[in-house]
Amino acid sequence: MGPMNEHPAEPLTVTASAVVADEHDPDQDEWVERLEQRVFAPTRARGLAYQLWLFGLVAIMAFGGIALVLQLRDGLYVTAMRDRISWGLYITAFVFFIGISHAGTLISAILRVSNATWRTPVTRIAEAITVVALVCGGFMVIVDMGRPFNLYQLWLHGNWQSPIMWDMMAITIYLTGSVTYLLVPMVPDLALFRDRLRGRVPRIQSWVYDVFSFGWTGNAEQKRSLLKAISVLAVLIIPIAVSVHTVVSWIFAMTVRVSWNSTIFGFFFVAGAIFSGIAALILVLATVRKIYDLDEYVTYIHFKYLAYMLLTTAMVMIYANASEFITKGYHAEEEDLFAFRELFVTDFAPFFWFYFFGGLVAPILIIAYPRTRTISGFVVSSVLVLAAMFVERYFIVVAGMRVPLMPYEPAHYTPTWNEWAMVAAGVATFLFLLTLFVRFLPILAVWEMKEEYEEQQMAASPEQAMVSNSATAPQPSMSVGGP
Asked: How far is CA 405 from the centre of its chain?
């Protein structure tokens, strides 16, 4: 990620005399102009590095396309999945993508509802991660079916008593709600792009800004309607997001397989989704901040708060693992002992212990230790968490299916190149769509950041303090300067 400043700067304040003497303070105007220029900057990305990045992602997606064509021609026989292990790398990637989709909608909604003022610079990117991850997760489900036409048949003739059908419905509702939750707060910023970039971008791009700004002019009635809509969406999206990963867990927990027969799976999957989602948000946020020079707006304090959330969720994950394994191990039968042996000692032991020590313990130590409590340390922790959570999804799926249901030898599963190619294409698609989002759409909530900056300036004024009978200091999340 390159060198990063590690400590926050003091917030820039405006003197009371300046606020009183000049309603349009020059410092404020300068701050707003810098903010808008930073947000406009990605729309002018044309460099060689950017083109090589897109070319590399497209090449990986094309390679995955070749694997998909072969699978469509020959069926799932090109994979290593068979009758005894019928789920593998595809379902692992599906659960992983659905997990990191909680980076945006759920985290953003909780922060909005709790009125966490530091959230503003990070919510837009978080909400974009949600939509993109859901698209990629849905893609992996279609690939796992072998033939895309099977999805159409499932909707027509599926058994609605099956958790698989519940999951399809939940993901569809979640994707619809997430797109709405991403678009609605973006309307004023799309209007800003519409007005400021007209004639400077291709016509189709300008047309998109014009259509999806919905005639926004910023009058009082529109603002009231916008704030009311955001409040309603934030409240509604939380139970929807929780239900999605709960239903995903039920696909496993409502089977007769020993490793999945658990009443804690719903909580376990939701906690794991939030855990991996926060890690994904930190990693993407640090990358975008570095590339587009957003240090002034996305500061050390934002990463620190997100890292504290990551640390807390890691401890919750350790508790959930301990509760699950201790309870089942206390009265373990032969099938449970087989599952424990392959997870802790034999085939899947390297995966499990990397997940536990590398993905749970190590991030806690990195974030808790003051000398590594830096942006670079947070990025390293996030990389460990994402790698460990993918591994965890893998051994949940594959190790769970290896436990024999009848007295026969356990089946073995090693993903083929077709499966790796499709999963790599899914990851490349995720990065490609995020790149396009950053390239064409506002990556910061400009209008919200402006309003909060103005409120902090007013709060810094002694005259305002006398009126409110309290002195309110500027929040560090809106610090100007930043690390």
From this structure: 36
Task: Please answer whether residues 439 and 105 qualify as being in contact, where contact means their C-beta atoms are separated by less than 8 angstroms.
Answer: no
**Are the C-beta atoms of residues 483 and 5 closer than 8 Å to each other?**
yes
At 177 the three-state DSSP class reads helix
DSSP 295: T
Whether 152 contacts 233, CB under 8 Å: no
Those residues with Cβ within 8 angstroms of residue 230's Cβ, 6 or more apart along the chain or in another chain: 112, 184, 185
Contacts 24+ apart (CB under 8 A), 200-205: 201/43, 205/43, 205/440
Task: Choose among 362, 450, 348: nearest CA to 401.
Answer: 348
Q: For the chain, give the number of residues.
A: 483
CATH pick for 41-404+422-446 out of 3.40.50.300, 3.30.565.10, 1.20.1630.10, 3.40.50.150: 1.20.1630.10
Rounded distance between C-alpha atoms, residue 273 and residue 104, angstroms? 11
CB contact at 8 A, 393 and 96: yes
- Name the DSSP class of 433: H
Write the CB contacts of 79 (distance below 8 Å, at least 6 apart in sequence): 71, 88, 90, 415, 416, 418, 419
Contact 403/256 with Cβ under 8 angstroms?
Answer: no
Per-residue pLDDT of 170-193, as tens digits, reads 888 999 988 999 999 999 999 999
Tokens of 278: 């926060």
What CA–CA distance (Å, rounded) separates 425 from 52?
Answer: 17
Residue ranges in 184-299 assigned as alpha helix (H): 187-196, 203-212, 220-253, 265-291
Which value, to the nearest 10 degrees, does the dihedral of the CA atoms of residues 253, 256, 259, 263 take?
A: 40
SS3 479: coil
Kindly report, residue by residue over 349-397, the tens digit of the pLDDT. 999 999 999 999 999 999 999 999 999 999 999 999 999 999 999 999 9
- Distance (Å, whole) CA 200 – CA 374: 39
* Predicted model pTM: 0.85
Neighbours of 416 (CB within 10 A): 17
Q: Which residue has the higher pLDDT, 331 or 373?
A: 373
- CA pair distance 158, 368, nearest whole angstrom: 49
Say how far residue 384 (Cα) sits from the centre of its chain: 15
C-alpha to C-alpha distance for 33 and 39, rounded to whole angstroms: 10
3-state secondary structure of 348: coil
In terms of Cα–Cα distance, which of 146, 56, 149, 151 is closest to 418?
A: 146
